[in-house]
Amino acid sequence: MTSSSPGSPGSPAPPPIPEPGFxxxxxxxxxxxxxxxxxxxxxxxxxxxxxxxxxxxPMSYGWGTGGIQVTASVIGQDDTLKVIDQGADDTTNAVNxxxxxxxxxxxxxxxxxxxxxxxxxxxxxxxKPLKAGxxxxxxxxMPEPLYFxxxxxxxANKMHALEEYGPMYVKLYEDITKFGRISLAYDYPVMVNGxxxxxxxxxxxxxxxKMDMNPALQLFGAGREKRIYAIPPYTQVKSLDFEDHPFSxxxxxxxxxxxxxxxxxxxxxxxxxxxxxMWICSDTDYCEQRQREQSGSAQKLG
Amino acid sequence: MITQLAGFADAIHDAQHTFRAxxxxxxxxxxxxxxxxLTPPSGLESSCAATCLTLLDLETSVWLQPGLPxxxxxxxxxxxxxxxxxxxxxxxxxLIWQLNNAPELSEFSWGTAEYPESSTSLLIQLxxxxxxxxxxxxxxxxxxxxxxxxxxxSAFWQQWETMTANYPLGLDCWCFAQNQIMGLPRTSxxxxxxxxSLGFTKHxxxx
Lengths: 302, 207
Ligand SMILES: [Zn+2]
Hints:
The structure holds 2 protein chains of 2 kinds.
Chain A: H1 29-44, E1 50-51, H2 65-74, E2 80-85, H3 92-105, E3 108-109, E4 118-122, E5 135-139, H4 153-161, H5 166-179, E6 190-192, E7 196-198, H6 208-211, E8 217-222, E9 227-231, E10 237-239, E11 266-270, E12 277-281, H7 284-301
Parallel strand pairs in A: 2-3, 2-4, 4-5, 5-8
Antiparallel strand pairs in A: 1-9, 6-7, 6-10, 8-9, 11-12
Helix pairs in contact in A: 1-2
Chain B: H1 11-27, E1 33-34, H2 46-55, E2 61-64, H3 70-80, E3 83-84, E4 93-96, E5 121-125, E6 135-138, E7 146-148, H4 154-164, E8 172-177, E9 180-184, E10 189-190, H5 192-197
The complex binds zinc ion.
Organism (chain A): Leptothoe spongobia TAU-MAC 1115
Protein name (chain A): Alpha-D-ribose 1-methylphosphonate 5-phosphate C-P-lyase PhnJ
InterPro entries (chain A): PhnJ
């Protein structure tokens, strides 16, 4: 098997479509078994990173090869797959990954969160609450929360073993001293099951509370860093904070300008070349379903 | 001939289906899951045989509790290529068919402080997944708490209680009966009321 030449994330060249004759879900059975064993260990030790032998995939690392390998090891013929990138189902990355799995598995796909049995995501958790039985796979660029404190993997492993997380609190508190608040907007570290410090991948901190006691199974795959970890359903996930500076999420002064939602994560998007801007839901499925419901009820009223 | 004993009817999709059952079992401790049916060699429960085909290969070492028919070993070698060890502590997977005569939990590997995942996974065959003294468990994967009545003696739960006090070190188990699987990850702890009712002593960690 060959892999595409490395390109930067988001580079225009789409991943080549695998040739016919590949195994179901692309990976060979031996590779799937090794990844499956790592996933099971991850579920047994929530938030703890399990090393695995990441394989070459027919796309470069920025495309989310870790998440793709996890999805490929979990997916079955009966699954309905949803893929989102920054909340949207229709970006190049999401479309290509969805197309890839359609090609190598022939599975059903959907854009509706509630219809999916398996969801692969880059950088968002949907607004519609996940359900028991769903599997939610995150693409992770950097799994190690201690990396910027301790770049040596061996040393970071020791810190996790000793539950030596003081330096992480010190780092966050330096933010408070400097800025008056914790400035981290993405990949805000969490404690899982009261024991393991974990990076939630670059989701906005707005999404952090959704991880806590979630009925779905959450799996995390880091391809370049060769790590897999997990949060089982109904597991405590707590964002790090301080008594005098409790954790809080972003909020906006205005609702979504498409659907009027006041409870969703908003992106500021440029709408024309005159510098016009709008605040709209980052979760396109949520926004479109709300708009449809509103036009439906408007028709009923009329 | 042993080599004529079939494995999965559909190697790829049956393994995937069984993996999801194992995954769900571990993610939702105490809730039974169903595997695909297959004709196992005498001595193996169908669900345990499916698990072996799904998880074992050349990279895994297996400890078989003595007393299993020789066909089991040949079947595993033929279908998975797994290696065997005589030392419970050195095994990635331990296949237990008589829990009451099995080594104590402390004789298997609980992993290391930095690599708690390098522990032994226990594959425990039971006559049924019910019928024992009810036990209440709590922990990840369990909303509030769940009652199970696995047919295990209180000595097992006493050892389990000691083990879970050493988290993240520990063992993860799958229990098998016919085509059913129940997961028991190291995070599943006995609730306080259970170990008191069994007359256990507390191991110095707070609930
Ligand atoms: Zn909206």
